[in-house]
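Lab notebook, bench 4. The sequencing result for the construct came back, and we need a structural model before the next group meeting so we can plan mutations. Quick request posted to the team channel:

Model the 3D structure of this chain.
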Amino acid sequence: MVAVQVPTVRPRRADVSHAVAHAAARTRRTTVASMLGLHGLTDELSAPEPRAPAPSDGPSADGEPCRVPAYSTPEDAVAALGAVVRYAAWRETDHGAPVRPDGVDTARARGLVDRALAGTTEAELDPATAEELLACYGVRVWPARRVRTADEAVAAADEIGWPVALKSTASALRHRADLGGVRLRIADEAELRADVEQMRAGLAAVVPSAADAPFEVQAMADAGVACVVRSTEDQLFGPVVSFGLAGDAVDLLGDVAYGVPPLTDVDVAAMVRSVRAAPRLFGYMGAPAVATAALEDVLARVSVLADDLPEVRSLELHPVVVSEHGAAVLSARVRLGDAQRADTLRRALPG
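Done. Here's the predicted structure in token form:
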């Protein structure tokens, strides 16, 4: 209940405040007030609770005083009451069980991190080591080969298997198919050789520094929705995991969901569904629905990794292509640093 007293001529009447407090105490209804000159918890808006029934073997006991909080404006009072209602609803919600994916080798991951940071305070893992670290948590990164010539590209494609994708490794062109930094579904040697030469010439005109950057050859994943999964080590919150769909529009609009590990299965599902672009995962405009369970599994595994290893300053899986059949992690970047986590209090509140 929201009680508002706005005197127009005379000063505020204390008897009205007392009546509101007594009504709140008697009915036990959650009540907030907006009364001129009152703010916070005041004696004027307090009343004793009704006396508790006397126990069979002793005298009755007085109840705790009931205090009605006062706010400067009715809008603030309504906002506070709404926050209480939302919090109560959150408390009543099933928050699921903590995610505990199988196939996790924490000891091996700890050894990799310690070796990478031996003698230094920061390090960016090379692709092979990053893939090995993620494999400790059951996340498989699709194999890729770095090449500089058309002959090397053909050899890599023969080893990986056709069809393949050809990508520039220049930082300004990574994942930028719109700028010519990615060629997909290359089916044979002749097409691959032509694409290497065309990309080298075309990218040099767009980004001159890209002329000397190597290429990357990777097996083609099934068509699907490209997503991004990241984790960072925040000085205030500790590990923070984020999820969003890939693309400039999503990045510019900040359409990203965040979670602080340890996460539950309900938390992970809510992160995937809370972004505004989530309908693309569930059959938007006649497209097939993708394997969100596989996507949630990747997100859960990243959250466990981030919780276990405070040395992982940042981790990015971009893109994670989710199709009808599963989730393919096509690229991973991991940066390490000395552990600075100081969250001695629990980040998981009891249910």
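The radius of gyration is 29 Å.
Will bring this to the meeting.
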